[in-house]
């Protein structure tokens, strides 16, 4: 075989080897969340639908390249979640990961995103560590956090006379953090914490925990859990008769859980949220389109709306940076540009990665006030983002000092 022919064969082999890479020259977004467990109806396929809607609304391209959305179920297991993130980053050319309910997984993926110079945008994640000691230049925390929800509700309920608290708390990073934030707000507002108990994720029987709450002398039971755990524990509390002499407070009582809980049990409960589908024409239009596309026909919640809004802003930043490949540069562009979308309105992203927007104190309607299946909440008060989220100077994020 002569050298010229061998050279041509080598060139052809190289072209065939690299052809799939050219075919995959896209901006790739991964939605990583719980699609089969207690958070599946709160993020799950709804977050995937929201991301795809955002890509379509943006025009399907960023930095001149088509945008692709992939999704996976982390099953609420850190090893599975980080394994998926590693595979996506190392083998499947994913540029950014969004959502991630489950703070332990979110913290692990945030660290890996910084290591691989990718982007992590948390919508379902709650822990304030993402914008505190564990902040990275590759992370944005979009929708909410345990400080805003825990502190806001703790303060509001004490002001309404709920001064003696007992917490029923999910036994992992998110639950611990949520209880801590609410307890500190209760004490700072003149209330007291009489006790707490922790339960595993996915607990089915809360009887022993509720009996401890009942015996504590508290007049408020704070549920520092999320998803189906919140609905199951609050429903059993109502069945136990705790609503007669206790105020039940779901610190992360998501809208999607209210139909299962029922307005009869949930009426009067207050929640903090940066989004509700019936706030204005923009949120109503989004909700109508969303419910037509999701198999359950459910209306969107704040975390699904957060995926939509954050994907839009991410794609703007990719255009500004000129490429999705340098995650740190893309996040820097996200911080440089003010945020503006029909779901959260105008806002901005701080140096520590915290997205700032208003929050609303919402109250669950009484059955006779509701006019349709998803007419569940009414706005009681609006809280400025600067007042709702932890001050940047208190977060101990090294980026804030630069």
From TrEMBL:
<dbReference type="InterPro" id="IPR051010">
    <property type="entry name" value="BCAA_transport"/>
</dbReference>
<comment type="similarity">
    <text>Belongs to the leucine-binding protein family.</text>
</comment>
<feature type="domain" description="Leucine-binding protein">
    <location>
        <begin position="27"/>
        <end position="365"/>
    </location>
</feature>
<dbReference type="InterPro" id="IPR028081">
    <property type="entry name" value="Leu-bd"/>
</dbReference>
<feature type="signal peptide">
    <location>
        <begin position="1"/>
        <end position="23"/>
    </location>
</feature>
<keyword id="KW-0029">Amino-acid transport</keyword>
<dbReference type="Pfam" id="PF13458">
    <property type="entry name" value="Peripla_BP_6"/>
</dbReference>
<keyword id="KW-0732">Signal</keyword>
<protein>
    <submittedName>
        <fullName>Branched-chain amino acid transport system substrate-binding protein</fullName>
    </submittedName>
</protein>
<dbReference type="InterPro" id="IPR028082">
    <property type="entry name" value="Peripla_BP_I"/>
</dbReference>
<dbReference type="GO" id="GO:0006865">
    <property type="term" value="P:amino acid transport"/>
</dbReference>
<keyword id="KW-0813">Transport</keyword>
């Amino acid at each position: 075989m002569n050298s010229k022919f061998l050279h041509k064969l080598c060139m052809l082999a190289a072209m065939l080897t690299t052809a799939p890479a050219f075919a995959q020259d896209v901006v790739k977004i991964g939605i990583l969340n719980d699609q089969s467990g207690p958070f599946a109806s709160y993020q799950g396929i709804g977050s995937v639908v929201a991301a795809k809607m955002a890509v379509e609304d943006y025009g399907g391209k960023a930095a001149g390249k088509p945008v692709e959305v992939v999704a996976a179920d982390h099953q609420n297991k850190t090893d599975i979640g980080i394994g998926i993130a590693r595979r996506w980053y190392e083998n499947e050319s994913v540029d950014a990961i969004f959502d991630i309910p489950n703070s332990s997984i979110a913290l692990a993926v945030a660290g890996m995103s910084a290591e691989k110079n990718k982007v992590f945008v948390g919508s379902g994640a709650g822990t304030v560590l993402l914008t505190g000691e564990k902040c990275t230049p590759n992370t944005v925390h979009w929708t909410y956090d345990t400080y805003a929800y825990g502190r806001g509700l703790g303060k509001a309920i004490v002001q309404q006379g709920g001064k003696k608290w007992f917490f029923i708390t999910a036994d992992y990073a998110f639950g611990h953090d949520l209880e801590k934030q609410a307890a500190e707000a209760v004490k700072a507002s003149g209330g007291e914490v009489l006790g707490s108990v922790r339960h595993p994720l996915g607990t089915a029987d809360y009887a022993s925990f509720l009996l401890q709450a009942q015996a504590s002398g508290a007049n408020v039971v704070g549920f520092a859990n999320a998803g189906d755990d919140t609905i199951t524990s609050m429903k059993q509390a109502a069945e136990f008769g705790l609503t007669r002499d206790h105020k039940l407070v779901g610190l992360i009582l998501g809208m999607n859980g209210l139909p299962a809980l029922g307005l009869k049990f949930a009426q009067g409960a207050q929640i903090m949220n940066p989004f509700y589908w019936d706030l204005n024409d923009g949120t109503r239009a989004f909700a109508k389109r969303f419910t037509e596309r999701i198999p359950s026909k459910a209306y969107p919640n704040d975390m699904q709306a957060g995926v939509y809004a954050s994907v839009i802003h991410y794609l703007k930043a990719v255009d500004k940076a000129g490429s999705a490949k340098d995650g740190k540069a893309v996040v820097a562009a996200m911080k440089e540009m003010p945020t503006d979308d029909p779901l959260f309105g105008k806002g901005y992203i701080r140096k520590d990665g915290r997205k700032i927007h208003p929050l609303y104190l919402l109250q669950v309607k009484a059955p006779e006030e509701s006019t349709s299946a998803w007419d569940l909440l009414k706005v009681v008060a609006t809280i400025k983002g600067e007042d709702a989220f932890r001050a940047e100077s208190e977060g101990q994020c090294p980026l804030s000092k630069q």
